[in-house]
Amino acid sequence: MVLHILRALFVLLMAAAGYSYLRLSWLTMAIGLTLAVLFLSIDILSPRKKLAVFAGTFFGIIIGIILAYALSFAVEMVVDQAMAVQFGPVPRPGLRNDLVQFITISIGIVCCYLSVSFVLQTKDDFRFIVPYVEFSKQTKGPRSILLDTSVLIDGRIIDVATTGIVESQLIVPRFILDELQTMADSADNLKRNRGRRGLDVLGKLRQSTRAEVVLYEASHETESEKDVDQKLMSLAKELNARVLSNDYNLGKVAALRGVDVINVNDLSSALKPVVLPGEKMMVRIVKPGEEAGQGVGYLEDGTMVVVEHGRQHLNEDIEFVVTRALQTTAGRMIFGRLADGHGGPGGGRRQRGRGEPTPTA
């Protein structure tokens, strides 16, 4: 909107400069309008980029004025030379001053417009480049967070956002939404269900009063990337934002490209209560393990539990003693052995250690 207003003012000022300063005829106003349309066409056909509007406008005007002032000295010399060739040594101060004023004002308007337009269309984290030294802008306040497709399908972001702990703006790029829609329209039943779940999660997230969620149109440079993960990395660098995902490989690629990634699995693991060796817990054995005699069960939070000699207690709630816990980026695993005196579903003492979840039926 601001850019459209700027373009309209540019056209009006060029027309006014042609009519008021040259004082010849309506032809001069037409010349001013023609120049305005010419430079406006060049600007519209140039690639789109992003930047803060007010800072960009101020910076562009300053640069435009400096350029116009520097070129004004050259204008006087060029006009004097042109009039000497055209009219000879006979001075015509009135016409000369009108021409100098018209050309100087026109150059000033063009320089200011092009400078402001260029800055408004440059990427958000622009830099002032000095030979061999680069000063990048410092980000104040919470940085925005880009949501990956996997984290929307996962759904835990709703519970996290509902707590109110996330103060950052949550950004969903348009290409992520398009990927979810493509998955929702897939002929494969699994992909279709995952895509629909992601769209449902996004809808609930936008309705939440505790989170600020916006849809974002990426720049042409970002859209030129073919892979969605590469687009996400490019947009994160462009906006100086972080990425929220549960894709382990995406985190590795992001680290190489200098992009901060928040892994939902890491966040979930950090909030889980610490399990120490020797604690007693309850779990339901649901399937045999890979090794002989092992039984596998799951706690209510999804943590996988491997119990030695637990295979004989399939589909039973048993008490076990924690021997060790393994924490990885993909999640947590607990290893244990049967508690002393356990003889079946009703045997042994049913004590629960610190932090033990309620057993599931």
Explain how this protein is built.
- The chain is rod-shaped.
- The strands form three sheets. A five-stranded parallel sheet has the order 5-4-3-6-7.
- The protein has helices at residues 2-20, 26-45, 53-87, 93-120, 149-154, 156-162, 174-184, 189-207, 220-223, 228-239, 248-257, 264-271, and strands at 127-130, 133-136, 145-147, 170-173, 213-216, 242-245, 261-263, 280-288, 295-298, 304-308, 317-328, 331-338.
- It has 361 residues and is α/β, with parallel strands linked by helices.
- The protein has twelve helices and twelve strands.
- The relative contact order is 0.08.
- The chain folds into three domains: 2-122, no CATH class; 145-270, 5'-nuclease (Rossmann fold); 274-338, OB fold (Dihydrolipoamide Acetyltransferase, E2P) (Beta Barrel), CATH 2.40.50.
CATH fold assignment of the largest domain: Rossmann fold
Terminus-to-terminus distance: 59 Å
Q: Architecture of the largest domain, CATH level 2? A: 3-Layer(aba) Sandwich
Number of domains: 3
Judged by helices, strands and strand pairing, the structural class is alpha/beta
- What's the CATH superfamily of the largest domain, by name? 5'-nuclease
- Total number of helices: 12
- Averaging pLDDT over every residue, what do you get? 76
Question: Regions with pLDDT < 50 over 5+ consecutive residues?
Answer: 123-140, 343-361
Percent in strands: 15-25%
Order of helices and strands: HHHHEEEHHEHHEHHEHEHEEEEE
Overall geometry comes to: rod-shaped
Major beta-sheet overview: 5 strands, parallel
Determine the fraction of residues in helical runs and give it as a percent range.
40-55%
Number of E-state strands:
12
Radius of gyration from the CA trace?
A: 33 Å
What top-tier CATH class of the largest domain fits best?
A: Alpha Beta
Strand order of the largest sheet: 5-4-3-6-7
